Amino acid sequence: AIDIKNLRSETGVITFDPGYANTGSCKSSITYVDGEKGILRHRGYPIEQLAEKSSFVEQAMLLIFGELPSMDELDNFRGMLREQELLHEDLLHHFDGFPPNGEPMAILSAVINSLGSYHPDLYEFKDEYQFRRACAKIMSKVRTIAAFAFRKSIGRPFMYPNPNKSYCANFLHMMFSVPYKIYEPPLGAVRALSLFLIVHADHEQNCSTSTVRMVGSTQANLFASVSAGICALWGKLHGGANAAVIQMLQDIHDNNIKVSDYLEKVKRKEFRLMGFGHRIYKNFDPRARILKGAAHELLLNMGQTDDELLAIAQELEQAALEDEFFKERQLYPNVDFYSGIILRALGIPVNMFPVMFAIGRMPGWIAHWYEEYCQPMRIHRPRQLYMGERLRDYLPLDDR
Ligand code: ACO
User: Fold this and answer.
1) Over the stretch 322-372, which tens digit does the pLDDT of each residue have?
2) How are beta strands 8-9 and 39-42 bridged, if at all?
3) Contact 375, 217 (CB under 8 A)
4) Distance 278 CA to ligand 1 centre (A)
5) Which residue in 197, 96, 84, 229 sits closest to 144, CA to CA?
6) Other C-beta atoms lying within 10 Å of the C-beta of residue 101
């Protein structure tokens, strides 16, 4: 047996902390979270204020460069985003290598990684301007790649970006316009998408951001590091949760399952209530509150006041909040609980939900990678508790 209390390495005592629940892995000045009080701030600004007043591009600049931009700085960066929105034509061939119904998350991570090979001059930065160019490239092209991955998955030709449109409107255009009909977003759709991206933009050392920092700690380039972040986001306990929530709500709806029966199964631990619980938020997730309001507003604007999945979500939330199992474990709706309702109302298919999360989280990943780039630290290299065989003699094949 191993004495867990006295783990030692050549550098001292080892902390055994599965899942890193109590391990601080870096110093950071980007995002502050107080899980007990439900506080989330980006560079000191409350998420509620950013959601109400800021645009996604403005907030991305705040996260990445540290300050809210002036009008000139914002115009300048918007211009860089416009210049970068097209993909190199050769890069388009990458899409051909995927099957017709290729997973958009697989396409996104692969193409972002490949993008780096088109810009090896941006593997290191001589000055901040060069870094800005890399940021603009990734932030602008991630949106084009995401929309093209969707078009590929439905067998439609790519719709090229329109430089006269805003960041969010341009994305919806690339997703839904067809050559004979330019897509006109319904009232409130662009705002709802912007809000969705803003609340996802950063959340300190979550799994995908820590992955970006871990990969970055090897001095891997920005493109490779954020591509690794996309892969980490994919799982249903992280960025895949928004899709899992909609599938859960749809399942309850289609099979006419009583909410109370569903919760009984969750309490018997047959499965988890998706969109509930958080490693840090133990009272409420401020992002869930913002998105709950936004989901209502969007559906109202779209004249869909009787959305059945939203009604089931609210019933589930209410029942769970009153239930001892959830109270004891401090399980509340997280950002993913209502975000799927918004994406679904925008016409975005479920396999694109984690991709939408990735577009939103991109400024956070870039900001964290750059923070680490500017203050290099030791390569991330956790230790382990070895539980296997101590020593064995090799047995020749014939003797086994
Ligand atoms: N439904 C039912 N029970 C749950 C849930 C849930 N959603 N989440 C946690 N629990 C229970 C666990 O079974 C455990 O119970 P126990 O003490 O009786 O064993 C207890 O609550 C603690 O759970 P942990 O897994 O230790 O909590 P952890 O902090 O590691 O996990 C996580 C956090 C992954 C978010 C978890 O709550 C979960 O799986 N939620 C559902 C998936 C989800 O919504 N993910 C999105 C997270 S937000 C984001 O990534 C943007």
Assistant:
1) 999 999 999 999 999 999 999 999 999 999 999 999 999 999 999 999 999
2) unpaired
3) no
4) 6
5) 84
6) 11
Nearest atom (ligand 1) to Cα of 279: 29
Beta bridge partners of 8: 13
Q: Which residues line ligand 1 (CB under 6 A)?
A: 19, 237-238, 241, 266, 272-279, 329, 331, 334-336
Distance of CA 329 from the midpoint of ligand 1 (Å): 9
Query: pLDDT (tens digit, 9 = 90+) per residue, 114-123?
Result: 999 999 888 9
pTM of the model: 0.92
pLDDT tens string 181-236: 999 999 999 999 999 999 999 999 999 999 999 999 999 999 999 999 999 999 98
- Helix or strand run (H / E) with residue 175: helix 167-176
Longest alpha-carbon distance in the chain? 76
Q: What is the ipTM of this complex?
A: 0.96
CA of 316 to the centre of ligand 1 (A): 16
Q: Which of 230, 208, 214 is nearest to 114 (CA)?
A: 230
Tell which atom from ligand 1 comes closest to the C-alpha of 337: 44
Catalytic residues: 278, 336
206: left (phi over 0), alpha (psi -120 to 50) or beta: beta
